[in-house]
Amino acid sequence: MSAPTFVDLEGLLTTNPMMDAVIDEILGREIRVGDHWLVDFASCNYLGFDLDPEIQAAIGPAVARWGTHPSWSRMLGSPALYPRIEERLADLLGAPDALVLPTVTLIHMAVIPVLAGKGTVIYEHNAHRTIYDACQYARGLGATAHRFRAGDLTRLERLLRAAPSRAPRLVCVDGVNSMTGNPPDLAAYARLCREYGALLYVDDAHGFGLLGERRPDETSPYGARGNAVVRWFGESYDNIVLVGGFSKAYSSLLAFIAVPTALKEHLKVAAPPYLYSGPSPTASLATVLAGFDVNDARGELLRGRLYAHSTRVLDRVRALGLATPNTSGTPIIELPLAAGRDLAEVASELWRRGVYVTLAAYPLVSRAEVGLRVQLTAAHTDADVERLLAALETLAARGDLRSAGPVAPRQAPPDPLS
User: pTM of the prediction?
Assistant: First the structure.
């Protein structure tokens, strides 16, 4: 029997072809499910590296040399690909050092409890669920955990002031948020954390590869080099730990944490994924290294194209009078449903029109935020984007999507950890 909380989601999974789909074929940014072709706007491959021939060509030679999967834990041995990635990554980020592990989720669960210790961990209410889970785990190991509304610096300062100064204080936030597409006011967070001697832990899984340092020759407001939200804000790494992943923009199964070298060495003995987990497949290690080369050679062109696609969609969304929380112009565009509309019916209409999106169903989001999320990539064509816009115009004409206008601020639910 299903718990009431999951009835909506389970209904979508069992009845709607947009969920839990088996994808039989990919052709560019089109996918085939059975005999039905759709344009894919659910992928997070922002730079299109998954389809890049130069990156794909790097896999065969690496597998021939290292096998499909070097099956040591990193504690026992790392193929030389690993230190090469960490050196190039630290240089790209402008960070003191970097440690790579298989996934962002593993990093959160391993590192947040280590950094929080028996002290205080404070996290944004809309931070990714994996941050919440890691903070809950840290609480079970003896930390005190609190939640604050994103951007509520008054409450954050009150919590920091009340936290014992002799124990660790850790503040966990999203970089580019996975639903709204917006970055935080990182400079304000960093300033407050430095004032109180706290460590700011930033999960920029969606921003790495997309946002980067600002400079005169940038091709878009996303900045240059894709070296993540810390550099986009022009911040240093003082009191900041940056976590990111290669599974979005770089289309590879690998993640990283940017830290001082001393902390990196400590994590080698304190973080379970380094001690016990199998490593990423050779193909992912090879495509990360090739991705660095492509980013150096063509990254600015790709980010410029991605910004053009995103602007085109956001301009049409606003012209149609539709609501979206995206105020930053990133390629993550959330579109909540109008009151009383059924997500399954909206998904069916998109399916008929050959448009594949991410469905944001309850309880993945609150009931007030149920809707759909569109993700654009540099590999989309103008024709792909036009198909999406035509579908959105149909949904808008039917009254399926929420209209823009005065919207009550998002309310943080009660904090079960406080």
Answer: 0.92
